[in-house]
Amino acid sequence: MIVMDQIAAMQALMRQYRREGKTIGFVPTMGYLHEGHTSLIDRARAENDIVVLSVFVNPLQFGPNEDFARYPRDFERDRRIAEQHGVDVLFHPEADEMYPEPLTVRAIVQARADVLCGRSRPGHFDGVATVLIKLFNIVMPDRAYFGMKDAQQVAVVDGLIRDLNFPIELVPVPTVREADGLAKSSRNVYLSPQERSEAPALYAALQAAASAVERGERSAAAIRRLLREHIEAHTHAEIDYVEVCSYPDLTPLETLAGTVLIAVAARFASARLIDNIIVELPKTGEQGDGKGEQPCFARS
Amino acid sequence: MIVMDQIAAMQALMRQYRREGKTIGFVPTMGYLHEGHTSLIDRARAENDIVVLSVFVNPLQFGPNEDFARYPRDFERDRRIAEQHGVDVLFHPEADEMYPEPLTVRAIVQARADVLCGRSRPGHFDGVATVLIKLFNIVMPDRAYFGMKDAQQVAVVDGLIRDLNFPIELVPVPTVREADGLAKSSRNVYLSPQERSEAPALYAALQAAASAVERGERSAAAIRRLLREHIEAHTHAEIDYVEVCSYPDLTPLETLAGTVLIAVAARFASARLIDNIIVELPKTGEQGDGKGEQPCFARS
To answer: Cα–Cα distances in Å, from B188 out to B76, B121, B152, B192, B197?
Structure first.
């Protein structure tokens, strides 16, 4: 495994791979790797000649009161895990290498960003989009792998790649969970034992919502109420949002139809957790044929 | 010469060239080609295996009261000129192909854009940066060619390429002029015979400024006054700006030092014209050695 921290050397290496006709799969991360990340790496490993992992805690996507400074970091452990999972190139730049001077040009996300996590993290997705443009230009991948746990991020990246014509295929990968259903997250290490025992209630609430949809519930208000009541009954967390919206456009819905994202975010004392599911329903106005009426759970 | 109007087909072709190890030179234009453009094409032809010319009048970079609808267009003539100058691929997309839906993500230029032309054209460089990100991702060039007549545009593109890590070399090309000094521009066709006879005064004013600098003038205020008086004495145009700033940072200067852009813009009844020169001077605080005191006119 090659470890690099310089942009110019990285671009020279990636050009070389491309000249050799090799396909490149890219997994951008902020490190502190868990099974969610390794599922992305494994998928990239199966589909490409070269697998590139980036580990970079991007200051641009953290708000002034967020956890940039204390975001968990353990590069030696990340390096070991990357090597074990067959990563070819590990890109681990310092912030000064990525942002040597104030940016003269940056990206702003003007759709899909003002709902869900974007509402409580203003500027977050602008920072994500800007660093991804940089990383895409540095790594020049054929495919980029993102976890569906951050469904809104996947929707923003989908827009970024399509609208700015990056010659990259976006590969969304299902959320990896603990045995009790808690979505894997680097921020789970912040949880106290009590919080850790309550945290699976987020996914349990989403499963309860899915069951309600299966039973025929189509009211977004009813689904939101169900989510809120479940989380309030089973945790001490403060609910940040419970939302029901179209995917990937992220338009809030009153009636569930088409591809629907059901998403929650809750603040425990020491960590804010997010989770979501996607349900596939007939589009509004489509006539059910008797077979198509069962929702199909395409991604979770 | 291959003429293309579809993005996906264009990207497939460009990938093919890259796989074959060919170098790609790119000349982005809004068409209505003149000798300024053909100087870019000729330079790209001399330096690359493949030359790509784009002709696209980008609606995103025109303000609501600007000349998007009446911007001069003559695609058959452009096609003929491109062929004569050895262009390999002419990319000529419709606006619907470039912007099929509202953009979810776009670029904003947060430095180098609030002076010179940016002051009277709010949002102009955001539109330029956004379309260039798209075109760079579609054409995937090794080198991109821009005319120094739009010096501010070159400065913005310099920031865009560097800050967002596009693996592209920016090649600035000197302004091409009519025999009487008027900078070549697609907008020159708007000029009445009277305006056309007055228009060379812009470059004459810049030359007078250069002579003053050669004689030792270092006051930006004095240079601006000289420019303004010359243009007012020789034209009926309304001065939009006369500015003296560092290049490529575009910081307004009080005292000329280092690489200095001297730029003018003036509105005739039917066209707004711009022109500029760059002078190279010792940096502030540098001691002259007797030889280095003559300004060197690197680009015009």
So the answer is: 20, 19, 19, 9, 11
A107 touching B (Cβ < 8 Å):
yes
In this complex, the residue of B11, B134, B165 whose CB is nearest that of residue A7 is B165
Both B149 and B257 in a single domain? no
Written as six digits, the tokens of A253 are 């819905």
Q: Nearest CA to CA, how far is A6 from chain B (Å)?
A: 12
Phi, psi angle pair for B30, to nearest 5° = -100, 15
Same domain, B29 and B126: yes
Reported ipTM: the value is 0.90
Structural domain span for residue A242:
186-299
pLDDT digits (tens, 9 = 90+) for B219-265: 999 999 999 999 999 999 999 999 999 999 999 999 999 999 999 99
A214-249 per-position pLDDT tens digit: 999 999 999 999 999 999 999 999 999 999 999 999
Instruction: Specify whether A208 is located in the same domain as A141.
Output: no
Among B152, B155, B156, B149, CA closest to B174: B149
Residue A247 marked ligand-binding: no
B37 given a catalytic annotation:
yes
CATH of the domain at A259: 3.30.1300.10
Same domain? A192 vs A226? yes
Contact across the interface for B108 and A103, Cβ inside 8 Å: no
